[in-house]
């Protein structure tokens, strides 16, 4: 039995990773900002972080936020992992962090480099956007009288459970460095994803494609966040929507 610490272990991905590792009989410690007994803010570090890592053999680092602080959090985690003698640090990143000049992506890339230079055994997996994230975006946009989507942009959403399965497997294997990306099974226009959402929920909105400006938009239009050669996921966006909404909504 392996002792594994999962950061962000109460989040969308971390919770599933935790469940899979525990189902295999491993001792899993869940680290999050508010959940005892390992309630730690990685951006602050401290003695509680050292206590959470004591005796851990592997760390799966899922904690992340677009609001900033990921690099500081990683620095604290890596330093504490070194002190604890952790043998394997597994990190989940995003496809395109080296190609799309988005602030959050730049931070994720910086953390990748910190992990690589940590002196620990390490594994990094990049995945495309989760179905949950695409849905959250579309739900926010659908509050408007029309549903605006970025013109000329495609996406490749992946089922979060598949990413969790892959991460759990990597955590139980030897450090492997940068492993092949994990992308969803289909590369879809944002218009088609929006239309699928509207069908699933029974909502009525005109989908309006809006061209945007800037380097970040250009990188998304160029497909910097896609991995066509690694479209290995199985679950489709429609299947995900079917589980969330069943036969669809009643309009609105």
TrEMBL record:
Keywords: NADP
Span of the signal peptide: none
Gene3D superfamilies xrefs: NAD(P)-binding Rossmann-like Domain
Domain NAD(P)-binding: 8-132
NADP is among the record's keywords: yes
Tagged with keyword NADP: yes
PANTHER family: BLL4366 PROTEIN (PTHR42748:SF3), NITROGEN METABOLITE REPRESSION PROTEIN NMRA FAMILY MEMBER (PTHR42748)
Full protein name: NAD(P)H-binding protein
Organism this protein belongs to: Streptomyces pyxinicus
């Amino acid at each position: 039995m392996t002792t594994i610490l999962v950061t962000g272990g109460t989040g969308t991905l971390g919770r599933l990773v935790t469940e899979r590792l525990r189902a295999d009989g491993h001792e899993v410690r869940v680290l999050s900002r508010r959940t005892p007994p390992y309630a730690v803010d990685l951006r602050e570090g401290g003695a509680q972080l050292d206590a959470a890592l004591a005796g851990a053999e592997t760390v799966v680092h899922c904690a992340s936020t677009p609001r900033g602080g990921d690099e500081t959090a990683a620095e604290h985690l890596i330093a504490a992992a070194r002190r604890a003698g952790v043998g394997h640090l597994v990190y989940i990143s995003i496809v395109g962090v080296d190609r799309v000049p988005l602030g959050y992506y730049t931070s994720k890339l910086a953390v990748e480099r910190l992990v690589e230079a940590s002196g620990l055994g390490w594994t990094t997996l990049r995945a495309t956007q989760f179905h949950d994230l695409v849905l959250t975006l579309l739900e926010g946009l659908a509050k408007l009288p029309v549903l605006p989507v970025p013109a000329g942009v495609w996406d490749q959403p992946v089922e979060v459970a598949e990413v969790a399965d892959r991460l759990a497997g990597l955590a139980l294997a030897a450090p492997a460095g940068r492993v092949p990306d994990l992308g969803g099974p289909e590369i879809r226009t944002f218009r088609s994803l929006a239309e699928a959402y509207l069908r699933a929920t029974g909502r009525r909105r005109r989908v309006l494609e809006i061209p945007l400006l800037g380097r970040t938009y250009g990188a998304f239009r160029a497909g910097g966040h896609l991995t066509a050669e690694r479209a290995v996921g199985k679950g489709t966006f429609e299947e995900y929507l079917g589980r969330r909404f069943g036969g669809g909504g009643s309009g609105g």
